[in-house]
Amino acid sequence: MTSITPAETRPGWILPTIIFSQFAGTSLWFAGNAVLADLQRQWGLPAGALGYMTSAVQFGFIAGTLAFAFLAIADRFSPRLVFFACSLLGALANLGIYVVDGYTALLALRFMTGFFLAGIYPVGMKIATGWYRSDLGNALGFLVGALVLGTAFPHLIKGLGQALPWEMVLLAVSVLAACGGGLMLLFVPDGPYLAQGAKFDPRALAVVFRSRSFRASAFGYFGHMWEL
Domains (ranges, CATH) in the chain? Predict the structure, then answer.
């Protein structure tokens, strides 16, 4: 009897679903930037608000990534559940702009949106690694492309519908993100290659940094995060 490899039994909808869900979730990233001009007119925000809003999301993402890593959230719980929960919470944080009134509250909500994006973008990559091994690089390439398109999507909505009120743009992005999380939960079960992480041990940091190759890639990514 011929053995069947996991790749041959992998449903064809797995990768397209992960790609779309990643695209949908990351559309939250610059949703606030897309409607900033409207908020500046209505709320009298300062001219430098764009830089602060962008930085708030990025700092939130960095803080979320650190928190998720230290607490091993995506290892202790199913990554698809984490992705779903963060998609919903990120969508709610994005919609929170509806009810706040003030620059500080706006920045806090953008920070929280970035925090929950840490449970979408990296966790989406982890979900893909559970389904792919030899062709993982190809799958991750599609996910990076989904990130690029997702972060640009709010600007596309705003550009195509100049007459749309900013509330509708944020609503469209939040609904899209929530739908992406739902699709991930319903149609992408945990994959056969999903690895269970060990309990976090701070001493492991010293061990892994002894690897020259790891240091090179890690500092390269740290530089990328500083750039953001």
Answer: 13-191 (1.20.1250.20), 198-228 (no CATH)
pLDDT at 106: 96
First to last CA, the chain: 53
Main-chain dihedrals φ then ψ at residue 155, nearest 5 degrees: -70, -35
Say whether pLDDT at 166 is over 90. yes
Q: What is the pTM of this model?
A: 0.89
Q: pLDDT-based confidence at 228, cuts 50/70/90? A: low
Q: Which amino acid is at 199?
A: K
155/193 Cα distance (integer angstroms): 36
User: Does position 223 have pLDDT exceeding 90, yes or no?
Assistant: no
The pLDDT value given to residue 10: 78
